[in-house]
């Protein structure tokens, strides 16, 4: 029989889109876990906004506000945030700026969740990854500060998310991400290190050919350099310096090097600015003191025009001659993020600086809130003591992301990026996992290279959870999100497949009394031997094979047609459950009295078909399933073997009966049985079918069967952990659905099933008759 081309699917009627509020409510219900997290984060931010007016200030706030008028370019504190302040001064006020920064924090949380959901993450994992940025009180407090960090974090998160939004970012995404990364450097100079992992990502992920990858990296770099070079040119015009961080970077490098320098071995000009005291004392004092404090040896060269060069030489000398000590100091500070509970780090700014104040802070006599806000026409600052105390209690009582969470995320991100498992090495998520993990390491280590501050650890709130979640997905094979429940039969895909089937075989094809339905997806290698092994008749009844091809991309349909099987082709891949449901309908419409299912991979022995049909033909059962537990199996995976018994135990307890195997694919049933059930699971559907049959009151029997090792093709079930999790979800959802229906009036089919059960026909000795009337 010659195959004919399947007709195109009928275009469904154009529906008027639902109103935006309705779509939003449906999305909120569907993603209820994230909705709760988002609401909690919004409430916390609203309380922080009400606790301080117009917002909190820090010593650095005086510089940002002071520079919002002249907008003079600097290195350590670029003008980007002063420009933001200037914009809000012109069109609103600083209270609105605080609200804007809180909205950026919520947007970052939404970005984390949306990106993971788009890349196939389960809702629970995506919500867990978004929880740190949404619920961390240190993030709330930083958003309430008149500091650049909240804007910077949103820019970095948004730029990297643009790159990872699609498996291969397009030209617009590359250019936009580059511009955003470059603009982040104008907000905080440390942003310049983020371009390195971004470029490596482009060279890895942007196409199969190196020419395309290089063009993509060049486009990303061009977008990045545009704002950076414009700012550098502005600095050259105003200060005579072309590199944005030359002077300040040298001083900060000196501060770190001064803590571990060995002064006695230094050249005289460098030894002159080497601090006194032991290394332990200097480490406890911290880099910030030697960088900024008037008591630092740098005060000796404060007016020396060659001071930046001397500071740079000092830092490089220490790195060259004491690399282990320098690396140890940086590594000690880097490790502080991963320790819990959160506490002061020796030599760093006290953590209390980044905790909620119960009264409005005054940093110095000449730097009062009145002088700061009065210069921009704002009223003097104030704090609501009650709200502030509640926020502080939450913060100190565990309202922050534990260090071990960051540690676990980092390990998962590193493992996923490196492809430590075979599944991870094949995962398309590896480049995105690398992007966020390496981006986090670059920003965190880049800051710790100079000095540690809890303020500089905030990029970990978005980047490490994103990298860790993507790494976990790569390691476990969670490349695709679980398919949604099937729509009621027939949906447009079913309808198109049925039309194609009727065009090929006629409106009323006479199949056979026994129809073996085989769902197949990319099984061109295995399905031929399976079809050849099927008998033409069994116990005097004619047997026909019906292959439902689930939008295979190989020659599965052609092989099935060449072997004379009735073949139905769906034009969209929906899963085994959808293909079998379609096959049940076609078989019954084709006159089948009994429907058998088997897999296309050759794991079931067709010679055991008479044993499978015996209980049906003898009137002992309405549904018969094989059991590897009663029979035998050749599989070598001990985890799958254990899982089979565990799920059998769970279903037995849920359905108040004894089941030995819930996932055996070689089954037989009366043709009317599947037509009377609700079948909506596209994958892992064997448990849904079994539980639904038991709940409907049909007589169910198990017979000993053999399952063989797969000889061709690849399993579509995923890894053991993923398969077990999703299979368990189907079991529980189906049981709950049928339990809720138990109180409703029974359908006519269910009543008939109970009547047949009441006949109490004795089973043969080779069957395990499952009697269940109380789901």
Describe this structure in words.
This protein is an alpha/beta fold and about 775 residues long. It contains 33 helices and 11 strands. The strands form 2 sheets. Strands 3, 4, 5, 6, 7, 8, 9, 10 and 11 form a 9-stranded mixed β-sheet that branches. Strands 1-2 form a two-stranded antiparallel sheet. A hairpin with a 2-residue loop joins strand 4 and strand 5 (about 540-550). Helix 2 runs antiparallel to helix 5, helix 2 (about 30-50) packs across helix 19 (about 385-395) and helix 5 (about 95-120) packs parallel to helix 23 (about 460-475). The longest helix is centred in the N-terminal third of the chain and has 30 residues, at about 210-240. The chain is elongated, with a radius of gyration of 33 Å. Residues about 1-20, about 745-765 and about 770-775 have low confidence and may be disordered.
Short description:
Belongs to the glycosyltransferase 2 family. This protein is an alpha/beta fold and 775 residues long.
Q: What are the SSEs and their pairings?
A:
Layout: H1 20-30, H2 32-51, E1 52-53, H3 59-66, H4 80-91, H5 94-118, H6 123-135, H7 137-144, H8 149-164, H9 171-187, H10 195-205, H11 210-239, H12 246-258, H13 268-271, H14 279-285, H15 287-292, H16 307-321, H17 323-336, H18 369-374, E2 382-383, H19 385-396, H20 403-418, H21 422-426, H22 430-448, H23 460-476, H24 492-505, E3 514-520, H25 524-533, E4 537-538, E5 541-550, H26 556-562, E6 566-570, H27 576-589, E7 594-597, H28 609-617, E8 623-633, H29 638-655, E9 667-670, H30 672-675, H31 685-695, E10 700-707, H32 720-741, H33 748-758, E11 768-770
Parallel strand pairs: 3-5, 3-7, 5-6, 8-10
Antiparallel strand pairs: 1-2, 4-5, 7-9, 8-9, 10-11
């Amino acid at each position: 029989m010659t195959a004919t081309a399947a007709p195109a699917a009928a275009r469904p009627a154009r529906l008027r889109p639902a109103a935006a509020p309705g779509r939003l409510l449906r999305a909120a219900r569907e993603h209820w876990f994230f909705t709760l997290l988002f609401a909690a984060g919004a409430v916390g931010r609203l309380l922080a906004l009400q606790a301080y007016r117009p917002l909190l200030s820090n010593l650095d706030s005086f510089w940002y506000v002071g520079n919002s008028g002249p907008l003079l370019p600097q290195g350590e504190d670029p003008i980007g945030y002063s420009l933001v302040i200037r914009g809000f001064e012109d069109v609103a006020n600083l209270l609105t700026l605080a609200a804007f920064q809180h909205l950026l924090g919520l947007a970052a949380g939404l970005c984390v969740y949306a990106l993971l959901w788009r890349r196939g993450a389960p809702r629970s994992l995506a919500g867990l990854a978004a929880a740190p940025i949404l619920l961390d009180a240190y993030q709330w407090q930083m958003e309430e500060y008149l500091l650049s960090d909240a804007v910077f974090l949103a820019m970095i998160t948004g730029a990297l998310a643009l790159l990872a939004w699609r498996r291969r970012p397009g030209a617009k995404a590359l250019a936009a991400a580059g511009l955003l990364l470059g603009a982040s450097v104008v907000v905080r100079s440390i942003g310049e290190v983020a371009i390195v992992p971004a470029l490596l990502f482009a060279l890895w992920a942007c196409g199969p050919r190196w020419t395309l990858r290089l063009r993509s990296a060049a486009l990303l770099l061009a977008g990045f350099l545009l704002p950076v070079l414009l700012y550098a040119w502005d600095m050259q015009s105003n200060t005579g310096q072309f590199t944005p961080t030359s002077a300040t970077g040298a001083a900060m490098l000196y501060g770190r090097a001064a803590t571990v320098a060995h002064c006695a071995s230094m050249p005289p000009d460098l030894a002159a600015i080497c601090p006194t005291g032991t290394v332990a004392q200097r480490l406890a004092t911290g880099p910030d003191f030697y960088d900024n404090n008037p008591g630092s040896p740098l005060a000796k060269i404060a007016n020396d025009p060659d001071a930046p060069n001397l500071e740079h030489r000092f830092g490089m000398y220490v790195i060259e001659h004491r690399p282990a000590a320098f690396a140890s100091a940086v590594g000690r500070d880097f490790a502080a993020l991963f320790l819990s509970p959160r506490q002061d780090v020796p030599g760093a700014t006290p953590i209390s600086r980044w905790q909620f104040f119960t009264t409005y802070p005054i940093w110095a006599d000449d730097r009062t809130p009145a002088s700061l806000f009065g210069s921009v026409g704002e009223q003097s600052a104030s704090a609501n003591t009650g709200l502030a105390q509640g926020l502080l209690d939450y913060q100190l009582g565990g309202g922050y992301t534990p260090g071990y969470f960051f540690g676990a995320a980092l390990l998962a991100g590193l493992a996923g990026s490196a492809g430590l498992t075979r599944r991870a090495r094949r995962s398309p998520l590896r480049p995105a996992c690398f992007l966020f993990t390496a981006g986090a390491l670059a920003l965190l280590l880049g800051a710790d290279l100079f000095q540690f501050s809890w303020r500089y650890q905030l990029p970990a709130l978005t980047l490490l959870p994103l990298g860790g979640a993507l790494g976990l997905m790569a390691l476990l094979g969670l490349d695709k999100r679980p398919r949604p429940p099937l729509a009621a039969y027939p949906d447009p895909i079913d309808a198109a497949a049925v039309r194609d089937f009727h065009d090929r075989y006629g409106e009323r094809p006479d199949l056979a009394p026994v129809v073996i339905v085989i769902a197949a997806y990319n099984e061109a290698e295995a399905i031929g031997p399976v079809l050849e092994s099927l008998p033409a008749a069994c116990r005097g009844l004619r047997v026909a094979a019906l292959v439902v091809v689930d939008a295979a991309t190989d020659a599965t349909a052609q092989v099935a047609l060449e072997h004379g099987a009735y073949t139905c082709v769906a034009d969209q891949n929906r899963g085994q459950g959808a293909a079998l449901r379609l096959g049940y309908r076609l078989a019954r419409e084709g006159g089948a009295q009994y429907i058998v299912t088997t897999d296309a991979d050759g794991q079931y022995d067709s010679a055991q078909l008479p044993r499978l049909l015996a209980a049906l033909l003898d009137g002992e059962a309405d549904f018969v399933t094989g059991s590897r537990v009663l029979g035998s199996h050749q599989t070598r995976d001990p985890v799958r073997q254990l899982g089979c018994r565990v799920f059998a135990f769970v279903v037995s307890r849920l359905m108040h009966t004894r089941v030995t195997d819930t996932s055996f694919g070689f089954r037989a049933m009366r043709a009317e049985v599947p037509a009377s059930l609700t079948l909506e699971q596209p994958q892992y559907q064997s448990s849904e079918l079994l539980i639904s049959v038991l709940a409907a009151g049909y007589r169910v029997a198990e017979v000993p069967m053999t399952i063989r090792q797969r000889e061709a093709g690849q399993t579509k079930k995923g890894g053991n952990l993923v398969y077990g999790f999703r299979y368990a979800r189907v079991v529980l959802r189906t049981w709950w659905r049928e339990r809720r229906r138990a109180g409703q009036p029974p359908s006519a089919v269910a009543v008939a099933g109970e009547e047949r059960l009441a006949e109490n026909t004795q089973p043969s000795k080779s069957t395990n008759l499952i009697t269940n009337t109380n789901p």
